[in-house]
Design a protein that fits this description.
Layout lengths: L2 H30 L4 H26 L4 H28 L7 H24 L12
Helix pairs in contact: 1-2, 1-3, 2-3, 3-4
Length: 137
């Protein structure tokens, strides 16, 4: 695996960690500051997709032949969850939007991210065109 790819994977894992921390902060804010179902949903969304992104980073390291596909899926999931959760949080706390159509944009990115996960995992099942397996095998 190229060093450049490992840097991207570590960067995404860092962003996933920050996303998970944001989810915990929103959960605490919901419990102690502003009880609003949108805050709890935003927290759940961030936590769930942070864990999924970390799992995808692991798969990118495990299956380097399709690593960039798994990295793309992780980045798309994190982007979508952050946009969606930020919009819900702003609506709950201030009655404002992140930007027009933010929630549908974030939701669409989440759907796209899960489709990329599906395609990446399915593609990893097939051998490379040269007939050799993954470099790790």
């Amino acid at each position: 695996m190229k060093h450049e790819m490992r840097k991207w994977i570590c960067a995404l894992a860092t962003l996933a960690g920050l996303t998970g921390a944001g989810g915990m902060i929103l959960s605490a804010a919901d419990a102690h500051l502003l009880s609003d179902i949108r805050l709890q949903r935003a927290a759940d969304l961030l936590l769930f997709h942070a864990v999924a992104a970390l799992a995808l980073c692991g798969l990118a390291l495990l299956v380097p032949r399709r690593g960039s596909w798994f990295v793309s899926a992780a980045g798309t999931l994190l982007s979508g969850s952050l946009i969606f959760a930020c919009d819900m949080t702003l609506r709950a706390a201030f009655g404002a939007r992140l930007f027009p159509m933010a929630a549908p944009t974030g939701g669409s990115l989440l759907i796209l991210g899960w489709i990329i996960v599906t395609i990446s995992a399915a593609a990893a099942l097939w051998p490379s065109p040269s007939g050799t397996g993954d470099e790790n095998t």
